[in-house]
Amino acid sequence: MAQIEIVRADITTLDVDAVVNAANNRMRGGGGVDGAIHRAGGPEILEDCIKRFPDGLATGDAGWTTGGKMPSTWVIHAVGPNYSAGQTDRSLLASCYRRSLEVADELGVKSIAFPIISAGVYGWPVEDAAAAALETTSAQETDVEKIVFAAFSDDMVNVLRSEAEKLGLTVE
Ligand code: AR6
């Protein structure tokens, strides 16, 4: 089982093999963490998105591009469900984490950082978004050794710590 860490950080600054992006179906960038990743990594990420995902990506799925100028080698883009638009199927949210770790294993990634997918613009209730993130990643068989959750606020750090405690998970 991978070691789980919760940190307060801008995910684009983390020195990990892969950072996960909370993307959308079009896979051409956007706001929130998606905007931050495209800005930090530079235009190579969008070029790779256009080349590798001409038709975008389905909700719940994940796929990789270069990390461009970021410290991470890879970006793994996952498309979360848009709760605010009525996509409330939790299995789609869990699928983002499962698919991201599968892609990470294909790439030989040993350390990965996740944002809390769907918990921003897409409006998923934050406690449940954090619980889904922790539950799904901690239950998965993977060769990834370190999973970092990058919280963008102190509130999110506290939510993640409290949900981890409810799940009986050891986190750093
Ligand atoms: N580092 C870490 N976490 C961040 C960062 C950052 N630099 N920036 C934001 N967050 P969101 P979603 C947190 O809205 O809800 C985009 O337009 C944020 O506080 O980025 O899945 C896409 O293109 C929140 O906790 O993603 C899609 O259209 C979490 O990351 C749509 O938004 C996710 O918030 C996806 O919405």
Comma- or semicolon-separated keywords:
172 residues; alpha/beta; Leucine Aminopeptidase, subunit E, domain 1; six-stranded mixed beta sheet; 19% strand; binds ligand AR6; Macro_dom-like; O-acetyl-ADP-ribose deacetylase; Macro_dom
Overall helicity:
25-40%
Q: What composes the largest sheet?
A: 6 strands, mixed
Classified by CATH, the class is: Alpha Beta
| End-to-end CA span | 14 Å
CATH level-3 fold name: Leucine Aminopeptidase, subunit E, domain 1
Q: What number of structural domains do the residues give?
A: 1
In round numbers, the mean pLDDT is: 98
What hetero molecules are bound to the protein chains?
A: ligand AR6
Task: Please compute the radius of gyration using only Cα atoms.
Answer: 14 Å
Second CATH tier, the architecture: 3-Layer(aba) Sandwich
- Count of DSSP-assigned helices: 5
Strand order of the largest sheet: 1-6-5-2-4-3
Identify low-pLDDT runs. Answer: none
Superfamily (CATH H level) name: Leucine Aminopeptidase, subunit E, domain 1
Structural class: alpha/beta
Number of strands: 6
Shape descriptor reads: globular
Strand portion: 15-25%
Order of helix and strand elements from N to C terminus: EEHHEEHEHEH
